[in-house]
Structure formats: C-alpha cells, structure tokens
Amino acid sequence: MQSINRMIWGPTPQEKVRKWQTQLKREQRMLDREVHSLDLACNKVKADIKRLAQKGDTKNAKLLAREVVRTNRQKQRMLTSKAQLNSINMQLGHQLAMVKVTGTLQASTEIMKASNSLIKLPQLSNTMREMSAEMMKAGIMTEMLDDTMETLDEEDEELEDEAQAEVDKVLYQITDGKLGQVDAAKVGELPQKQATGPTPEELERDEEMERAIQGLLSS
C-alpha cells in the first residue's frame, strides 16, 4: 500500500526531509575534505615562504603570502558554509517533528536564507539550487534568489585593494618577524610617520623588509 501511495502521490514529507538531510551530510563531508586539502597546501606554501625569506627573496615571498591569504579566506568561507549546512539540517529535523503534528512541511525563513547563501559557494551551487527547487515545491521555501552569485573578479579586486596588511601579517608570523609587520591592532596605533610621512606605505614596508633580510643574511 505504501509503495502504491508513493507512486501516486510521490515521496512522503518525511522521506523528502530524510533525503535532504542525507544530501546535506554528504556535502558537509565534502567540505571537510576540501578544508583538509587547503590546510595541507597552505602548510607547504608557508614552508616555501620561510625558505624564500632565508634566501632574501622578498618579492616571491610576498607573492606566496598572498596565496596564504587567499587560502585562509577560502577556508573560512567553507567553514561558514559547513555551519550553514548544519543549520539547515537542524531546521529540517524540526520540520520532521512538525510533520507529526500538522502532517505537512512548513515554510522556513531560516532555511531559505541559509540556502540562498550557500548557492554562492561553487562547490555547493548545483546541489543547493536543486534542493531549493525541491523545497519550493514542498512549501518550505517561498522563493529562491538568482542574483546571489559572487564573482572571483570582485574578490581579486578586494584582495589587491585591502589585503596588503594581511599579507604583511602573514609574512611576519610565518618568518618569525623577519619579514612583514606586526598587525597594528596588536601593538597599538602605528607610528605617526607611517600615517603622515611623505614616503608611501608600500615603499616603507619594502625598505624595512630589505633591512630585515640584510640582518638575516649577515647573522
């Protein structure tokens, strides 16, 4: 009888929810593997930066430091997405409890917001679009936004415009203070001449790095 009802009416609300929960757990495991791969790759780059610092190759060390910054941002994005997947999973568990009372799935603003946010991540985009379409049919979501995709070009522009301080911080940490600068938030306000002096910030940073390298080579 149950199989006949499924053929006529399709999966039950409970079956739909369990299917989505299985998909969400699979995507969480995929993100875990991605994060692990990023950690391994980042550790290799950090080792390369240390070797370049010892050789006095500031230019290439800074280039690799930018890759560390990019990797850290990507990792943070994945960890945030994993937390959002878990949030959807918990909300679906609440839906299962409500089905026993009402017999139907209920609209959920939390699930809709989290799903629309997850569509931005390339690794999850296809899965979340398909799942969102199914949830719309089931009545859990009332709409699915189509204008939430982020472009890598915008991220690259942001990196070029704002990430220099992060790059210097990464260099400072990885090379034990031989390259880069301490984050201003950790040591108080920057010296006045850095903020008002006629020398451009980037040039001043490069000069300090060169002096650090010379001291490293002579030691």
Automatic annotation (TrEMBL):
GO process terms (BP): vacuolar transport
Stretches assigned to coiled coil: 142-169
The UniProt record lists the keyword Metal-binding: no
One family name in Pfam for this protein: Snf7
Record region (Disordered): 183-219
Keyword Coiled coil carried by entry: yes
Keywords: Coiled coil
InterPro entries per UniProt: Snf7_fam
Residue spans crossing the bilayer: none
PANTHER family from the UniProt entry: CHARGED MULTIVESICULAR BODY PROTEIN
Protein name as catalogued: Vacuolar protein-sorting-associated protein 24
Native species: Rhodotorula mucilaginosa (Yeast)
Upper taxonomic lineage: Eukaryota, Fungi, Dikarya, Basidiomycota, Pucciniomycotina
